[in-house]
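Hi support team,

I've been running sequence recovery on a batch of backbones for a student project. Most finish fine, but this one hangs at about 90% for roughly twenty minutes before it completes. I'm not sure whether the input is malformed or the queue is just slow. I've pasted the structure tokens below so you can try to reproduce it. Let me know if you need the job ID as well.

Thanks,
M.K.
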């Protein structure tokens, strides 16, 4: 293995670890290095929490083989939707601002997630769903996707499962559904 290849591989590993740590709000313990050239005003390691949220959804992350870790900022404009889709790998999202409405295609149930809440998306073609911004301000989400390395995207488009989206979202608005 050439030295250049080894450096690239290490760099990817460090980046993925840093992305997960920042996304999940993990803390770091630092060990000073003898050769570190660090000025007094720049810490040797720093982390910034971009957003955080709470979820009560039970979940496990199970990976057989290598995975890509994607850390994304998603914006859903007022009146826009994600379209019906499913996830090819695990996804954890934090709603940073706005209210995100999620419709589950299996039973047409509606859940709303406000700023400071998190959601964990199930994996596979039997878990079709859609997200909608019914508000007047953009919804901003920070998302971590853990997907198979051969996947070209974290989601796959799916056919409409037959939910009456207009009726469902007007009910949740009038009922004040969580």
């Amino acid at each position: 293995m050439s030295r250049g290849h080894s450096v690239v591989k290490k760099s990817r590993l460090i980046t993925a670890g840093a992305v997960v740590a920042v996304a999940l709000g993990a803390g770091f313990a630092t060990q000073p290095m003898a050769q570190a050239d660090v000025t007094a005003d720049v810490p040797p390691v720093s982390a910034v929490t971009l957003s955080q949220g709470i979820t009560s959804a039970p979940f496990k992350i199970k990976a057989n083989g290598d995975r890509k870790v994607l850390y994304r900022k998603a914006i859903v404009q007022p009146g826009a939707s994600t379209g019906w889709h499913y996830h090819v790998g695990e996804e954890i999202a934090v709603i940073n601002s706005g209210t995100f409405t999620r419709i589950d295609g299996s039973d047409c149930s509606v859940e709303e997630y406000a700023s400071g809440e998190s959601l964990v998306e199930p994996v596979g073609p039997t878990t079709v769903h859609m997200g909608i911004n019914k508000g007047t301000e953009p919804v901003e989400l920070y998302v971590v996707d853990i997907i198979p390395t051969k996947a070209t995207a974290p989601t796959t488009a799916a056919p409409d499962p037959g939910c009456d989206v207009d009726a469902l979202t007007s009910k949740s608005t009038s009922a004040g559904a969580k």
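--
Follow-up from support: It reproduced on our side and the slowdown came from queue contention, not your input. Confidence is low (pLDDT under 50) at residues 1-33, 174-178. No action needed from you.
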